[in-house]
């Protein structure tokens, strides 16, 4: 009886082992059946793992570059491949029946399907957008992209290097236009205090917004409270600041003889563009090359202004302002060429439409000391009148530049007013001359 029980236990264990083996074989056959057959060539992306089956039994496998691709045989009929990095390699298979099979493998950096979907999700509202997967790359085509769309595309390319950009930006994109209303004035220094330009005293009324004191030295001082005392202009210091609602005070100063308007140029630039203004002249500077040839280069001098405005969706304006005043210094010459004395401001400010930016301190009374020594300076617009001013020579007045940006378009009231004023000037000129001299 005991022997019979031992025999029964052994038989049971053998039966269980046979059942497990049969289940494993069935699972292996199921996996082999589910795995797709090995193609003639493979396109993978880095990090991708695939399983393929082959007809017959695999005896041996080799890969051309183990750094690009890892290969492992499962059983005798399946191959697992894991792509590590972008590149090209191949897998060599030796079969039990003596046959051989070579499978080229091309690996790209990322999943092109996911990259294409990301491009469509972010830029899908562009009517001309085209997204195509070509050879492991994602080709983006289209036309009339806005500058913002091109920026988005550039950021996508940083994340997905396989993006190839063949899209073009709209060269005539409709952007807001900024008209920089400029008033270059000679101001009595006592009157400057009254409208808050020099900021020696507390600012009165609604004038004042963001106030900053800029100096022609390595230090840029910012006062925390714009409605309290801010350092004045002395020596070679210059002022840069913003003040609102000062137009009426400027006009009052002009009516009382405390301010004189030297010029009122108007600069216009598209958002993201630039505009320049130069009043002065050019002086020839001769240079000698190594072969004895004499080249002549003209150096500009006078008042130069460069603006680069950008307008956001709310109509707020961020603008770069470069202002330079250069004058000839005849006391210093190099090879017969005079030197230049230059004062320059370079800053960037955020303002609202209609706020006034003030620049001051670019010219001091010391500039008039060399005035009579340089022929022709008296004929320079703005500077000639300024240097001839006895009040300026006596250091009682100062050159002040007011910049007021406005966002305009063809239908804006300000633009219509400018057109109307231009037509009125043409009409007055026609009446004076007696004929049409302006087309």
Account of the 3D structure:
Residues 417-439 are annotated as: Disordered. Residues 1-32 form the signal peptide. Belongs to the bacterial secretin family. Residues 39-101 form the Pilus formation protein N-terminal domain. With 439 residues, the chain is α+β, with helices and mostly antiparallel strands. It folds into three domains: 42-108, Immunoglobulin-like (Sandwich); 115-169, 2-Layer Sandwich (Histidine-containing Protein, Chain: A), CATH 3.30.1340; 177-196 and 237-408, no CATH class. The protein has eight helices and 22 strands. The chain has helices spanning 2-34, 112-123, 147-159, 189-195, 247-255, 383-388, 390-393, 413-433; strands spanning 42-45, 49-53, 58-63, 69-74, 78-83, 87-95, 100-108, 130-134, 137-145, 163-169, 177-188, 211-214, 220-221, 239-243, 259-263, 266-270, 275-288, 294-311, 317-334, 337-351, 356-360, 397-408. Strands 11, 12, 13, 14, 15, 16, 21 and 22 form an eight-stranded antiparallel β-sheet that branches. Strands 1-7-6-3 form a four-stranded mixed β-sheet, with no helix packed on it. It has a four-stranded antiparallel β-sheet with strand order 17-18-19-20, with no helix packed on it. Helix 3 links the parallel strand 9 and strand 10 (163-169). Helix 2 runs antiparallel to helix 3.
